[in-house]
Amino acid sequence: MENKASENAKQPRVINKSGTTKLADAVVAEKEQRSDQQFRNQRRDNRRNRRAAEEQAPKEFDSITINIGRVARVVKGGRRFRFQALVVIGNHKNKVGVGLAKGSDVTSAVTKAEQRAKKNLVTFAMNQETICHEVETKVTGAKVMMKPAAPGTGIIAGGVVRSIIGLTGIKNLISKSLGSTNKINIAYAVVEGLRQQVPRKDWTSNTKEEAKK
Description:
Elements (H helix, E strand, L loop, with lengths): L1 H9 L14 H32 L5 E14 L2 E13 L4 E9 L2 H14 L2 E2 L11 E5 L2 E7 L6 E2 L2 H7 L7 E7 L3 H13 L4 H13 L1
Parallel strand pairs: 7-8
Antiparallel strand pairs: 1-2, 2-3, 3-4, 5-6, 6-8
């Protein structure tokens, strides 16, 4: 009986006229499992390589979270709580942006705020390592005054203004926050003041045109 069973096991099973044989179910399952494992390993390696490349690549913009608050929305069943994040990004040169967004958790709120900040980037003019001229901007109740400073002065400013200026190439600045202490309004006022900067070369052209008139 054992000899007959071994002979039957050795004999291939022909499934078509070309003479191809049908593998045992266990062998087919083993091959499928092996190919599936190889595919999973390849995907895992690709993810690791992509993650390592992203970590090695230098970031163009740095970001800082200025404020995270909890907001509530009244619905039929009660209150629905969400998180609001205020994020500022900059390239330590002459580009800066502010983003405000809400999310169900802190991580999603910060991510959305960073994306909005990238869309709202502002490019401003600089005079070496300070701003071109004095400016005073107002957003709702917040008023911010910024003045250029001599080399070696440093950044003389409050918390929100210092955080935003720290993401730019400005090294010398004198600033004062007037009016409201709302961080969101102060942040937008600072960015608006930077956007209003006019280069020195445009000052003389404007005065010459006025003199000709």
